[in-house]
């Protein structure tokens, strides 16, 4: 594979991630003149918005994905936050209020375990050889972990995580391609080597 295509592929990949991130983060609020509040509710897709009325008082709205906004007062919002937080357990403290959230937490956790575990694989391989080596498993764990984290950060709408994983995943893929290209030995050369 020529280097030109790899550079073009990397530029396209990062550009697509940036465009997706821009579209995700540059959304207009569904409620005119409202500001989104970063508050976790029991339903992960519900969003809290604040808006000033004509008297200058703050109004709270909960926007349900695909439905109309629900206007509530401060006490009702506090009751919902208390109810969501009092469900208890370790999953609730992680924000796992539904199976969708639990699934994405699992994706992110598995991606992070792979991404961290790659260093253990590299350490063990280096200890066995007595010198610094990077085994192929390191690159595979890096790529899979990076892609899982990229998906998780897209779901979380986390621009820092997206930028952190977007470039690296292409580097990991390129190293895997180099490893696979190195393992391709033409049949004639393999036979000649075996006869020697």
What would you say this structure looks like, in words?
By secondary structure, the chain is α+β, with helices and mostly antiparallel strands. It has a domain of 99 residues. It has a four-stranded antiparallel beta sheet with strand order 1-2-3-4. β2 and β3 form a beta hairpin. α1 packs antiparallel against α6 and α5 runs antiparallel to α6.
Write the layout of secondary structure elements.
Blueprint lengths: L2 H23 L9 E3 L9 E6 L5 E6 L5 E4 L1 H12 L3 H5 L5 H31 L6 H21 L2 H25 L3 H9 L1
Antiparallel strand pairs: 1-2, 2-3, 3-4
Main attributes?
7 helices; alpha+beta; single chain; elongated
Major beta-sheet overview? 4 strands, antiparallel
Q: Nearest-angstrom radius of gyration?
A: 24 Å
> Which stretches of 5+ consecutive residues score pLDDT under 50?
none
Give the overall average pLDDT.
Answer: 79
E-strand count: 4
Could you give the order of strands across the largest sheet? Answer: 1-2-3-4
What fraction, in percent, of the residue positions are helical? 55-70%
Which sequence of SSEs, written as H and E, runs from N to C? HEEEEHHHHHH
